Amino acid sequence: MSSSKQNRTAAAPTPAPGPAGPRPRRLTAAAVLTGLEGLALAALGVYMLVDGLTGAPDSPQQAEMGGITLIVLALLPLLAARGLWLRRRWSRGPSLITQIVALPVAWTLINAGGALLAGGVVLGVVALLVLGLLINPTATEALGIGPREDA
Fold first, then answer.
1. Residue 3, SS3?
2. pTM of structure
């Protein structure tokens, strides 16, 4: 082996070891549901963007900007879902924030009635479910979050 190849191999960073053991089902469920929320936001954003570009909305500029905004906002739950799936400690906060923000959105959809009622109910149930999954001790331990040990 050449010395330059050895130097490149030796200089490569080693990935941080993940938590040991299998991923708990609660954490898997939270990751999947958070990911689905992100995908739903992205899909709605793409729909609004395409409608603004090719359809006849009341305000094409507003539809385009709303679509872009939703696509960008979808990144938070998608990144959080990936982090939960990989059992990254940092991912719990963004996922919790996503669920807390989803609750007033769900309430607004429920109060709007009509076809939005079902979407609001589903969003509210999913947000409450993920909140429950993420505050569960099994999930927090799997993410390496535990009680503080003060001396």
1. helix
2. 0.81
Place of tokens 């939960």: 84
- What is the DSSP secondary-structure string of 32-70? HHHHHHHHHHHHHHHHHHHHHHHS--S-HHHHHHHHHHH
**CB proximity list for 13: less than 8 A, separation 6 or greater:** none
Query: Which two structure tokens, joined as six digits, stand for 113?
Result: 């009635």
In three-state form (DSSP H/G/I as H, E/B as E, the rest C), the secondary structure along 99-143 is HHHHHHHHHHHHHHCCCHHHHHHHHHHHHHHHHHHHHCHHHHHHC
Tokens 């941080």, residue?
16
Q: Is 19 left (phi over 0), alpha (psi -120 to 50) or beta?
A: beta
Cα 95 from Cα 24, distance rounded (Å) = 17
pLDDT in tens, 72-123: 999 999 999 999 999 999 999 999 999 999 999 999 999 998 889 999 999 9
